[in-house]
Amino acid sequence: MESALFYVFGALMLAGAVLTVTSRSAVNAAVWLVFSFVCASGIFALLSAPFLAILQILIYAGAIMVLFLFVIMMLQGPELKDERARRSPLTLAVQVLPAGALAVTLLAWLARGGGAGFGGAAAVTGTAEAVASLLLNRYLLAFEVISLVLLVAIIGALSLGRKEEDKPWR
Amino acid sequence: MAVGLTHYLVLAGALFLTGTAGVLLRRNTLIMFMSIEIMLSAVNIVFAAYSRALGDLSGHVFVLMNFAVAAAEAAIGLAILVEIYRLRRSVDVDGLKTLME
What is the mean pLDDT of residues A94-102? Predict the structure, then answer.
């Protein structure tokens, strides 16, 4: 059952990602990305991380994608101008080499018979309570630093969004 | 065959490659941003998978950090994008050569 769900969510998530990257219109890409993120939430649930699964929906599929759709709405109509893909030998190498490495690794692993589950590691369920107690004890400094990052992001976005003549560097 | 760590790592690797392809091949900045979000998502899956394999919840905390970084990146990036659009009336990366010249 768990294996079947992994393959369903994994395949759908990958398909959503590929469709995002290949979509002609930015709106379609955004909608496929939401689909992909909802499937990611399923993957988190399978990894016994219910808190992350909920946050994935709230933050990614909710807040970040709304931001994207707002910007798309502000900037342009749904159709993109005809775009040519950049194809240099370097781009191709960057694409093909890691994909080849991934395929070789996968085949070697399958040739050795594949792994058996998580090797009997006990599943620790990442409930909100358990994650929060780690976050506010052991990782308190990281938590404070990340809130600073968010504060800087807010200030940066505000100052970038000002009218041209109000910009501090004008 | 029971699903294990390697399955999740392969899924994350494939997702990351998809994201890289998007950043390298598309010229629409909005879709390049979405590709970056796909790559961050792949990294999140690796964190959660190792967390499950090692029986340690620290990975979940780092996924939370990654969520915050992704949100900050999207906010700043999209603000810059709006600004570029105001100046150039286009979000195509081909036009963005001002710093090179």
Answer: 82
